[in-house]
Design a protein that fits this description.
single chain; alpha+beta; Herpes Virus-1; PH-domain like; disordered C terminus; cytoskeleton; zinc ion binding
């Protein structure tokens, strides 16, 4: 029972609602697991397993859904079966955390016991308490191509910019320490709202969806680059 209690406390499944930042996905409460069908996290909102953080690929690591909590997980992390009350107590594929909670069987391999690395902060977790979060495109060095990502400046880590491939990912693929960077405005080109982070030879070029969003990101990044960590200090309320 102690092992189950520790597992429950560590597991974001039972302590943090998957906010569904763009889709409004509700999370089940602990007492509802197995009793009510979850709303599945959509495949296109994640690029990696929401448990082990390994990237998905179409050949050896495919997407599966835990029938208890609705998370998108890989085959290894969902290689468990538990009886679910909402499905007539028939065995269903579930993730390791839900398996432990629903059956009381403790799995010896405990991936959650590892310390979180600097990039291993879930997008939903940090976006829920962020100074600013949203979708930006990060251009490549040629300035012609790039990838769209979910970008977050957390309240508890306001001097670092985290970039996720998708808004439900549990691990960032890039972090940028903002302190000391210069924020540069760029002329609008091809109807794109461009700005840069620059320090020495390191330059990141971003594209915002609107001019207003561009200005908000520039203000937020400039504050962090200057070492300002308290919201509202030295700027207007909507920044």
């Amino acid at each position: 029972q102690d092992a189950i209690d520790r597992k429950e406390k560590r597991s974001e499944t039972f302590k943090t609602a998957v906010r569904g930042l763009e889709m409004g996905i509700p999370a089940l409460k602990t007492e509802e697991l197995g009793r009510r069908a979850p709303q599945w996290v959509r495949d296109n909102l994640v690029t990696m397993c929401m448990r082990c953080r390994e990237p998905f690929n179409p050949i050896v690591r495919r997407r599966h859904h835990c029938r208890a909590c609705g998370y998108v997980v890989c085959a290894r992390c969902s290689d468990y079966r538990a009886e679910l009350q909402y499905d007539g107590n028939r065995p269903n594929r579930v993730c390791q955390e839900c398996y432990t909670f629903l059956t009381g069987h403790v799995v010896l391999e405990d991936r959650e016991g590892k310390h979180k690395g600097i990039l291993e902060k879930g997008a939903a977790e940090v976006s829920d308490k962020s100074l600013l979060c949203g979708s930006l495109q990060l251009l490549d060095k040629s300035g012609k191509g790039g990838t769209r990502g979910w970008v977050v400046i957390p309240q508890d880590d306001p001097l670092v910019l985290y970039i996720y491939a998708a808004p439900q990912d549990v691990r960032a693929h890039t972090s940028i320490p903002l302190l000391g960077y210069q924020v540069r405005d760029l002329p609008q080109g091809d109807s794109r709202h461009l700005f840069q982070l620059a320090q020495s030879r390191q330059v990141y070029t971003f594209v915002a969806d609107t001019e207003e969003l561009k200005r908000r990101w520039m203000r937020a990044m400039a504050r962090s680059a200057a070492g300002i960590t308290h919201p509202g200090e030295g700027e207007d309320a909507d920044s």
